Each structure stands twice: as structure tokens, then as C-alpha cells.
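[job 0412] stage=complex_fold ligand=tetrahydrodeoxyuridine status=START
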Amino acid sequence: MAQDRELIRAALEAREKAYTPYSHFKVGAALLAKDGSVWTGCNIENAGYTPTNCAERTAFFKAVSEGQREFLAIAVVGGREGPVTEECAPCGVCRQVMAEFCDLDAFRVILAVDEAHYSTYTLREILPMAFVPSRL
Ligand code: THU
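[job 0412] stage=complex_fold status=DONE, emitting C-alpha cells
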């Protein structure tokens, strides 16, 4: 899908901004909101390690802090410094953040190597038995 490739391109660009002096593992994400806007993010590490923020959450928090609440898809690219060579699956914390705002069956998670090589999953596929807001 052309839109998937645009998101992957945006994620690859965002990855260039990753701040990773400790792991040297660079991740970029591009989040598509329902209104068509795209919110990018990179991972931002910290000398204290724990404060590190993943690329996916950077994208979500940028978008939500600007009033976005509804999302359609996210593209994620990641790997050690240099070109991406394999798909990078989001960590469990980022999957849980996705579940806060996204429909499990409608939200698409695009894991990419580049614009020509990627796989698409639903959020439910990567987060089975999700703990979702409606359970509270
Ligand atoms: N990281 C992400 O940004 N997203 C993921 O999906 C997996 C992990 C980051 C966190 C840390 O800066 C580095 O990758 C190594 O774990």
C-alpha cells in the first residue's frame, strides 16, 4: 500500500534522529492518526537507562500531547547502527501503550526493513489477551 510505504519512509527518517549512545540500537517510528496526520518518533536513551523512551512511545506521546487520540497504523524500523537488516518488534511496554489508544483488530503494526520489505500485523496479533481500558 502506498500509504504503508510513506509511513516506512517517515520511520526511516525518524530513525536518523535516534539518541542511542548506550545501545547503539536505533529505532524510528511513524504513527498515522485518523485525521491523516503522521507523528514520528525515535528512541531516546539516558545515562540512567530506565528513563529511556522507545521510538514508538515517543511517537504516541507526541501525538497524544497534541490532542490526537485515534490512530490507524504505525510503521517501525530498528536495528543496530547502519542499515536496517531485519524487522524490529515493539517491546511489551509499547504494545501496551498502543492498546490504550488503538483498536486491537483495526490498528495495523507495520514492521519494516525498508519500503519494499515489510510485514503487517494487527495489534491483537502482537498483543494477545490484552489488558485494555474497557476491562477496568
Ligand atoms: N527500542 C525501541 O525504541 N523500540 C523497540 O521496539 C525496541 C527497543 C529501543 C530502546 C533502546 O533505546 C534500544 O532500542 C535497545 O533496547
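The helical segments are 2-15, 55-65, 92-101, 123-126.
[job 0412] exit 0
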